[in-house]
Write a structure and sequence with these properties.
The protein is of the alpha/beta class. It has 11 helices and 14 strands. The chain folds into 3 domains: about 170 residues, 3-Layer(aba) Sandwich (Molybdenum Cofactor Biosythetic Enzyme, Chain A), CATH 3.40.980.10; about 80 residues, Alpha-Beta Plaits, CATH 3.30.70; about 45 residues, no CATH class. The radius of gyration is 25 Å and the shape is globular.
Length: about 300
């Protein structure tokens, strides 16, 4: 099953805010076996949002839209969607009751701007009414449309607890998606790409992604298949080939960090470490002392 993500907000298109919602949603969907074929970022503009939504529905089986569900003047997603899908705006009684309850709990009244949040496109269903007034679902033909708040914490909660489980329940069969992260130090990205040419024709269906994380380079091996046993076997095989090619430049895998690797080496060799740092703000010492047990080998540092 493939889908699209649309994130809405002038703060995104102006560069004032980083689009972490698209990053989070795409990662969660991909590792659940659901394919994201396109991500679109648009401002709070009727024509742009309408065009993006209609384009997404042409090929996608699901569309996840974030942003524009609040009470301020620039929160226009509900109005735009209603016009784009030719549906009237209706006041949802459950949404209104939730808004009223939240307002009264704070000693407030439901203002016109707050009541605006209760007006949604006809046919909308609240994703999680028991968890507050945020997010709704629409079915347009064969396409599932999920509208989520732009607030990252709220969006992530609804994605994890409701949207992804709902999508997975609608899938008859899902592929197995697995990835491995390999971390390299001492080789440039072009040099790594040159080394990986030796894997041509030997990697099977495993794909490679190269991601600079200065001063490191991270390599992600990914494979999608129907059988979990085959995925694991193939990734193990290709990972072994990559290890031989990278040799000593490969210093860690998965979530392991440079400071963890250094700490293990120091413990194993029974070596202690002291630092003299200049113009770093104590960054190296900070990273090392963030590790539990670092006092066994770290003697301290001098800042200039």
């Amino acid at each position: 099953m493939q889908g699209e993500i649309i994130t809405i907000g002038d703060e995104l298109t102006s560069g004032r805010t980083l689009d972490i919602n698209a990053w989070y949603a795409a990662g969660k969907l991909t590792f659940s076996g659901l394919r994201v074929c396109r991500i679109t970022v648009v401002g709070d503009n009727y024509e742009m949002v309408s065009q993006s939504l209609k384009r997404a529905m042409e090929k996608a089986r699901f569309v996840i839209v974030t942003g524009g569900l609040g009470s301020t003047e620039d929160d226009k997603t509900c109005q735009i969607v209603a016009r784009a899908l030719n549906r009237p705006l209706c006041r949802d009684s459950r949404m209104y009751d939730l808004l009223k309850s939240h307002a009264e709990a704070r000693g407030l009244e439901v203002s016109p701007s707050l009541e605006k949040m209760a007006w949604m496109p006809d046919g909308s269903e609240l994703i999680s009414p028991e968890h507050g007034p945020c997010g709704f679902h629409l079915k347009e033909g064969d396409v599932d449309l999920y509208f989520l708040p732009g607030v990252p914490e709220q969006m992530r909660y609804l994605m994890d607890k409701f949207v992804i489980p709902d999508l997975l329940a609608k899938c008859k069969e899902l592929p197995v998606v697995q990835s491995r992260v390999l971390k390299v130090f001492g080789l440039t990205e072009p040099k790594i790409a040159e080394i990986f040419k030796e894997l041509k024709g030997k990697a099977g269906g495993v794909t490679f992604g190269f991601y600079p994380k200065f001063p490191e380079n991270h390599i992600i091996l990914s494979l999608t298949d129907k059988e979990e046993s085959r995925v694991k076997k193939e990734l193990d095989r290709v990972e072994g080939l990559v290890e031989k090619l990278l040799g000593p430049y490969l210093f860690a895998k998965g979530e392991e960090t440079m400071e963890q690797v250094v700490g293990k080496l120091l413990k194993r060799e029974e070596i202690t470490l002291a630092l003299a740092e200049s113009c770093t703000g104590g960054l190296v010492g900070h990273r090392i002392t963030n590790l539990s047990g670092s006092s066994e080998y770290f003697q301290g540092f001098n800042l200039n």
